[in-house]
Design goal:
It is a single chain. The chain is of the alpha+beta class and 185 residues long. 44% of the residues lie in helices and 28% in strands. It is built from 6 helices and 7 strands, in the order αββββαααβαββα. It has helices at residues 3-14, 60-66, 69-78, 81-90, 107-124, 160-184; strands spanning 17-26, 31-38, 41-42, 56-57, 92-102, 131-137, 145-155. Strands 1, 2, 3, 4, 5, 6 and 7 form a 7-stranded mixed sheet that branches. The longest helix has 25 residues, at 160-184. The protein is extended and about 70 Å long. The N and C termini lie far apart (54 Å).
Length: 185
């Protein structure tokens, strides 16, 4: 294979713009949806953006399995300071929306929760993120629900610094675990 052609193909893959849409719903009918677009071409069947039929339901048993400490180690590594800073430089948040519907059996409790959320939401919306918070109080007592929508864009090549920082954190965690094991025996 021609090396120039191969280098050009690698370069094109690295500069390909990627857009990721994530929706997470908790409350009455918990579910999630992840959509991926590369170079403007969607990798999903086109539907209306707010269609809840695309969401995959979250089962309680699956969620408890994923929240075990050994499964959360990777998430803790992703949330570490060096990985966060590398991701912040590589990823651009286009949309971050939070829709909250408060509906408790007691109307007074609904009003108190709504007021507390409203007071907490005002300072959050004035930050650097394109955050939009939509609050709704429903006094029918059907159950509260939260929907978070996030759209981020990035280029595949810009993830290399974040991947290197993540690998360093993984090695540090593994070496500290080995040191603790050796010290205990």
């Amino acid at each position: 294979m021609n090396m120039y052609f191969f280098s050009l193909l690698v370069y094109l893959v690295l500069i390909t713009p990627v857009r990721i849409s994530l929706r997470l719903r908790t409350g009455r009918r918990p579910g999630y949806m992840l959509r991926l677009q590369a170079a403007g071409l969607p990798f999903y069947r086109r539907r209306r953006d707010e269609d809840a039929g695309d969401e995959k339901p979250i089962r309680q048993q699956d969620m408890t399995e994923q929240l075990k400490p050994e499964n959360l180690r990777m998430l803790r590594t992703l949330l570490s300071r060096p990985v966060r800073s590398a991701l912040r430089r590589a990823v651009r948040v286009e949309v971050l929306s939070c829709y909250v519907s408060v509906s408790e059996p007691d109307a007074a409790r609904t009003a108190l929760i709504y007021g507390a959320l409203r007071a907490a939401a005002l300072p959050l919306c004035s930050g650097r993120l394109p955050l939009r918070i939509h609050l709704h109080a429903d006094h029918r007592g059907q159950g509260s629900e939260v929907l978070i929508r996030c759209i981020i864009s990035l280029r595949l090549g810009s993830l290399f610094p974040a991947a290197v920082a993540w690998l360093r954190q993984q090695r540090r965690a593994a070496s500290s675990k080995e040191e603790e094991y050796a010290a205990s025996h």
